[in-house]
Write a structure and sequence with these properties.
7-stranded mixed β-sheet, 34% helix, two-stranded antiparallel sheet, 8 helices, alpha+beta, 9 strands
Length: 250
């Protein structure tokens, strides 16, 4: 799929930073714009309405406890491939085979992708994302990223948050694309090594949630490793009916 021209430098935006800082020096065009001030109510929707026709999508920038923005995140766009070149099932099954027997004491084969739940939230996926962005903003900065779809935002900036688990974040974006299709997720916030997504079609049965828990483990093992009692407890507490998923890579 052809990329739209990067419109960040041509768009009149509030006070902020047009960031081209990477691990290996300046990038040839801005990777993102992010605001000087914390996000206000309605910023997400306004930025989406302004940016989407130009191939730009909103995300919140969580500067974390150290108050460090993406200029300190060691972004790696030169090492990032294209999400469409990867298959979610391949990415997840490979990670499961590598990690499950050691970290879950589970030697069962990869169980396959979880089914898409039949039910969805009353709001559209983008309306829910805007609501979640407002709820979790808490000092986060608004940002715009050149991306056609929300799932591609991490790859578009060469985000290195999952580096200890996956060297090419585009492979994880292939999973996010699959979750967009099955669960109506949107990438709402990124930190140095954290991600928050909204979920417009969360699992509504224990069976659906448990199947999805295997995907979450393969996507981000630390999510399950640092929460006791394994996949079933994780599914019941963090996935069943939940409209927000959070991820943290150690």
């Amino acid at each position: 799929m052809a990329a739209l021209p990067n419109q960040l430098a041509r768009l009149e935006l509030p006070a902020g930073v047009l960031l081209d800082t990477t691990e290996n020096g300046p990038w040839h065009e801005p990777l993102l714009w992010y605001g000087d001030e914390p996000a206000l109510p309605g910023d997400w929707s306004r930025l989406r309405a302004t940016g989407r026709p130009l191939g730009l999508l909103p995300v919140l920038i969580d500067r974390g406890r150290r108050d460090e923005g993406p200029e300190h995140w060691e972004l790696q766009p030169a090492r990032t491939s294209y999400p469409g070149d990867h298959e979610a099932e391949d990415v997840l099954s490979e990670a499961w085979d590598l990690c499950a027997s050691d970290e879950l004491d589970d030697s069962t084969p990869w169980p396959g992708l979880a089914p898409a739940p039949a039910a969805s939230t009353p709001a559209t996926a983008d309306e829910l994302a805007a609501d979640i962005a407002h709820m979790i903003a808490d000092g986060a900065r608004p940002a715009l990223v050149p991306a056609r779809r929300s799932a591609d935002i991490p790859a578009a900036i060469g985000w290195s948050g999952p580096l200890n688990h996956e060297n090419d974040v585009a492979r994880l974006c292939a999973v996010l694309r699959s979750w967009e299709d099955r669960f109506d997720i949107r990438v709402v916030a990124l930190g140095f090594d954290t991600m928050t997504v909204s979920v417009g079609r969360p699992p509504t049965t224990e069976t659906e949630a448990l199947a999805l828990a295997a995907e979450h483990f393969a996507f981000c093992p630390d999510n399950v490793d640092h929460r006791p009692h394994g996949l079933r407890a994780y599914a019941d507490k963090h996935l069943l009916g939940q409209e927000v998923w959070t991820f943290w890579w150690d």
